[in-house]
Amino acid sequence: MKYLTSEINRFFPEGARMAFLAGPRQVGKTTLAKHLLSLVASENFYFNWDVERRHCRAIIRNPEDF
After folding, report:
1. Could you tell me if 29 and 22 are in contact, meaning their C-beta atoms sit under 8 angstroms apart?
2. Cα gap 26→65, rounded to integer Å
């Protein structure tokens, strides 16, 4: 995961508001996203449209917040 973290940080613009991770199942997208957020103490900003229904409702209810 360390090599991916450095590559993502290199391409991720300063002040970026959102990032989407896509890829096949079971390759570590969730693990990587949560790891990157933990590096900047932002674990509460992880949302998953596919798994957690409360995340979907929050996004639909207040899309301008995202």
Report:
1. yes
2. 29
Q: What is the DSSP string of the chain?
A: -HHHHHHHHHHSPTT--------STTSSHHHHHHHHHHHTT-GGG---TTT-HHHHHHHHH-GGG-
- Residue 31 inside a domain? The answer is yes
Q: Express each pLDDT in 4-53 by its tens digit.
A: 777 777 766 666 667 777 889 898 888 888 888 888 777 777 777 776 67
The total number of structural domains that make up the chain: 1
Residue 51 forms part of a structural domain: yes
- The domain in which residue 39 lies consists of 2-8+25-65
